[in-house]
Amino acid sequence: MMNVRSYALGPVQTNCYIVSNKEKECLIFDPGEEAERLMKMIRSNGLKPLSIFLTHAHFDHIGAVEAVREAFQVPVWIHEKEVSWLGDPAKNGSSKYVALPDYIVAPPAEENIIKEEQSFEISNFSFKAIFTPGHSPGSISYIFENDGFAIVGDTLFEQGIGRTDLLGGSTKVLLTSIHEKLLTLPEDTIVYPGHGSYTTVGVEMESNPFLNGF
């Protein structure tokens, strides 16, 4: 069974998830900010990062990528539609906020660009990357079927859904992604969102007001 640690980081408290195994190897999802705090936690727990995975490239999900990548010499994975967002503050949204620096992250190696839905087998981590656009055109959810959880970025929240008024957003596309890709998972699947508390597929199917009547 995998261990999932959650850390709310940065100015908008974006959830970074660190999934680790018994061997203390780990995968890092959305290191959004506070690189020093994040790296201190990783080292203090004796964890060995293997890779960084991004659900999407908005500024609050990528702020610590460069520092963490360099510190641990690990690859970064992202959807091909948002590779250019990493180095473009206008696309990743950081340029819209006067109080924030421009967030610029170097693009990943070509072999780490996710161009189609795929399964990953990294050490004993087994999961799928599925496309759940709507909040952004390259949003990805990572599904750990054997472990009963999904890391979904800003696609689905506890009693909410991702905003769709940003570049490339679409409410219709987002709702389709949620209903066809996430709500088809087992109802006891734990959903780890980009902000706020975790929830389950079953709870959101039953009571999320944004999904009723779709």
Automatic annotation (TrEMBL):
The residues covered by the Metallo-beta-lactamase domain are 13-195
Report the CDD domains cross-referenced here: metallo-hydrolase-like_MBL-fold
Q: Which Pfam families match?
A: Lactamase_B (PF00753)
Is tRNA processing among this UniProt entry's keywords?
no
Q: Which Gene3D superfamilies match?
A: Ribonuclease Z/Hydroxyacylglutathione hydrolase-like (3.60.15.10)
Q: Name one GO molecular function term.
A: metal ion binding
List the SUPFAM superfamilies hit by this protein, alphabetically: Metallo-hydrolase/oxidoreductase
InterPro entries xrefs: MBL_Glyoxalase_II (IPR051453), Metallo-B-lactamas (IPR001279), RibonucZ/Hydroxyglut_hydro (IPR036866)
Tell me if Ribosomal protein is a UniProt keyword of this record: no
Q: Which cofactor does it need?
A: Zn(2+)
UniProt keyword list: Hydrolase, Metal-binding, Zinc
Matches recorded under PANTHER family: HYDROXYACYLGLUTATHIONE HYDROLASE GLOC (PTHR46233:SF3)
Q: What is this protein called?
A: Metallo-beta-lactamase domain-containing protein
What organism is the protein native to? Lysinibacillus macroides
Q: Source organism lineage?
A: Bacteria, Bacillati, Bacillota, Bacilli, Bacillales
